[in-house]
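To close the chapter, one final illustration. This time we ask the reader to focus less on the individual chains and more on the assembly as a whole: which components sit near each other, and how the overall shape emerges from the parts.
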Amino acid sequence: MSSEKVTVVEKIMDANDQVALTNRRILDQAGVFSLNIMASPGAGKTSVILQTIKALAPEIRIGVIEGDTAPVTIDADKVIAAGMPALQINTAGSCHLDAVMLSRGLESFPLSDIDLLIVENVGNLICPASFKLGTHANVVIASIPEGDDKPYKYPTIYRGLDVLIMNKIDLLPYIRFNKEYFLKGIEMLNPGLTTFQVSCETGEGIAEWAEWLRARVKEQKAK
Amino acid sequence: MSSEKVTVVEKIMDANDQVALTNRRILDQAGVFSLNIMASPGAGKTSVILQTIKALAPEIRIGVIEGDTAPVTIDADKVIAAGMPALQINTAGSCHLDAVMLSRGLESFPLSDIDLLIVENVGNLICPASFKLGTHANVVIASIPEGDDKPYKYPTIYRGLDVLIMNKIDLLPYIRFNKEYFLKGIEMLNPGLTTFQVSCETGEGIAEWAEWLRARVKEQKAK
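The assembled structure is written out below.
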């Protein structure tokens, strides 16, 4: 790769990071704590969001921004049905959200009416890792049926995250999944990472995750 | 988007498609039938490949090219352990294979020793759809635990495929999955699509898939 090409790439990343900083400032000024939830398609991002709403609302007022590669509003509709404000960002085929897309979403979002903003990124275990959004915490949801080797095969997204949620643990009896091997891969990339093991079907583990999130929202309010 | 930008994108796609045509010619000259297998991370691409080897080898000689976003050779090692030639293309963080990457792989691959080449694309339900490789058939593996709404949410990859494999059907009793709704989405995008329902754990459905593949390999040899 020529040095010219490298410079261009660096400039694109700089521009994204600048907008991410502005997004963070807007969220901080509104006193809103925010998450960027990333995962493969079907890992349970929307299900975790719906369970989080069930556990924390109305005590904590939650808003959701949905990143989708197609214009269907299946996920946003579910959040609205749960009584929360939701907005869809249709990436028109693009494989990730970036800070500019989020900044446009924030412009029209009723931030003064919420305490917690959850951004659901596009279902993809590769590209979203490369674009900061300006949110306060990166959350990856690992789905048990995806297998225990994912941290080894997709290290970029599993590195530098703030919270890991292992979802669909109700399926553990029916699947060959070596939890020790999986967690060893996670620990290698993120020593001491905050990890929750949950099932959105049975509700197991959701209370612990909600407790962690409640504390972050309170900290943000106290700032 | 300015018309200048559109032109540049079109030229990149043209270049990829040109190399894809060359790849197809090389495969045809070698009498090798080839698949491009695409799916989310953990949908069972490597498991389907290993089951296919078990069902068809040594009658049909199979080679595998593994696309991985990280340099770990977990999947290629499994294929080699099954006694087949395998080569890994490390995309160095990139989210898909393209025709140029495959053409480099083909240069060093022992095509005269095989009848069937299986290319396992990077685990991603978005980006691989945009890059033709030059292979004869596009196969998407849908994993039951990913949920029944995926054709609606990721229409680009579910459109224009040649075969759909529904994997992990052994988990159907434990998961809410509306097969009718899923297949309606598939039918909308690909009327009359060839579809196999399989389990790599129990072996169910593998024989039917292997039969379809055996016929394609024979047709290619007869050309």
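The helical segments of chain B are 3-29, 45-56, 74-81, 99-107, 150-153, 155-158, 179-189, 206-222. Chain B has a mean pLDDT of 94. With these observations in hand, you are ready for the problems at the end of the chapter.
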